[in-house]
Amino acid sequence: METLDGIGVSQGVAVGRAVVIQTTGASVRRRHVEQDQVQAEEARYTDAVDTAIQHIRDDQNRLAPRLGENLAIFETHIRMLDDPRIRRNVIDRIRTKRLAAEAAVDEYIREQVQLLAEDPDTARWVADFYDVQSRLQRVLLGRSSTEVRELAEPSIIVAENLMPSQTVGFERDKVLAIAMEKGGKTSHTAIIANALGIPAVVGVRDLIESVSAGEWVIVDGGSTDGGPGHVMVGPDDDTRNRYSDRERDRIELTRSTLDKLITLPAETLDGRRITLYANIEFPEEAQTALENGAEGIGLYRTEYLYLEKGREPTEEEHFEAYRAAAELMWPRPVVIRTFDLGADKATGTSGQAPEQNPFLGCRSIRLCFERPGMFRSQIRAILRASLHGYVKILLPMITSLAELRRAKGIVAEVCEELDDAGIEHEKDIEIGIMIEVPSAALMAEAFAKEADFFSIGTNDLIQYTLAVDRGNPVVAHLFEPAHPAVARLIRHTIHAGDAAGIPVAMCGQMSGDLAFLILLLGLGLRQFSTSPKALPRLKRAIRELKLTDAFEVADQVLKQADIDTALHILADHRGDLAEL
Amino acid sequence: MTVCVVSAEVPIARDEALHLRPLVELVARAQQFKSRVVISRGKRSADAKEMMPVIQLAPEHGGVRLQAEGEDAREVIAALAAIIDQAVQRVMAEEAQPQNGAGEGTTRGDP
Fold this sequence. Notes:
By secondary structure, chain A is of the alpha/beta class. Chain A has 25 helices and 15 strands. Chain A has 3 domains: about 25-140, Enzyme I, Chain A, domain 2, CATH 1.10.274; about 150-255, Phosphohistidine domain (Glucose Oxidase, domain 1); about 275-575, Alpha-Beta Barrel (TIM Barrel).
């Protein structure tokens, strides 16, 4: 047996026989046509483009329920097919070289692909071009490349580089796993396999030459997305059985522990009840949140509504999304955060030059003030939706009391507007603020008098406190959630909230990270909001901890001047949770 | 009609933000304007209305420069910058959202 290493991009293990797929474009005969046929070939090409686009749209509709936002890949392929200049280029080849339509397409795509393949930055897009090419040739020549949907029995797909359209064309129950020689964790095929829950390993060197069709293969997608994954070629009976059993056990174990956990309270060993909320981007995720035991939605990131549509949503679009989430979660709360968009969006519409320093620029609530129309229509929709459940408003990036008052003033005005128009809405909606800027954390006592609740946003709070952009690889290591300065700001915020009797939740990435759980509990945090799927693990960890231990850890961390010592303290306590 | 020349440096805060999808979108959008638009990265540049040359620029590291000339130069620059910004925003929003099993893989001190 030979074991090959790769990048695991979709978790799970599968054992099966290999189907090897060749993807590098089928060869097309370089056929010429008579001069009087040129016009007909042009028309044949144009028609084929239209038909291919229609085929993509059909696939899109067929797969929409399974793929969600990953459908954008198809939109890109449509734009590539539909590009007027690419069309003209192909037509020129038909005219000047008297090439048949399929030969002109083949020549053009091959030239372009060669250019892309030369540069490592663009080489990963080659599969997309072959994909578009094979769509077209399928129409022009009436033949198809290897179609995975025609698989006779459940198999493991082994390929040099799968095209996205092949991956989505899979019948889920016929494809046990995917192994690819090319590709990285952000390649389209990886994203789609993950979305469909098919175990997958990509970037496996020498894969194609190591595997023969029909051979037994084990694909192990690893235990973290993007971590190591393995492909075992030619395993014996024992190994195969062992892996099959292990996978079955793993699935059953996860399911049974999950089921058990969902009905249990999130309670520390010494009996302190903790509230667990979920962060969502789309209303449909509220269902997943409930299934994972969420007690409410702690953060509904509405900017996805904008990003998904690529434009400002209408009031009705806002309303429908919020109503759906509120109804699903009722009687649990849904905290809707108003648009937290970057400064970039403002430049997009006002025509100003992009900002030099967008994170310190016109983003988030500041942008909402700049664009009152957009903000008001969102507030109107939230107020209307609040009749359908228990809805609260969360304002992002508040840095001063004046901003909070101004935002509350706008909400009050919108309420009046709705009253005047005779539209029903919640009269006394709760309005909270994100604590994600040091000035807000330091002034938390003052804010606590005027806000109905706090939600600590750690990603920005850490970034602004430590002056680190964690997307910048040179300084990313300085982004340290356990920095004692951050811990102090968090503690200060929680104490101010407690003293004023308003709830304090945390919705940043830190709140779902088990490494910081004991510290956060010790700092007094009682409400956590994180991604739905991280909730069961978080709950299990909470049920293993004692609040008294947590206080001790937090005390020690707060006393440290040095980050490394603080990290050591956390690492020591983290050991107990490693097995969870 | 006044003809003006407008240019802008657009920072790209995230590698990989400007992948195939936003690039293709950017070209399709540029084609809707009258102005001539050039997109450049370092010393290389391309006509922003030509899909293949723009894709071959692979403009995702560091940033790009947009330059437009024509009656709607300002508008086209703003529109293209917005597409790039949105792409970056999308990547950052994905980062902000913990992946499956978050809390496992991000631990310090563990191998």
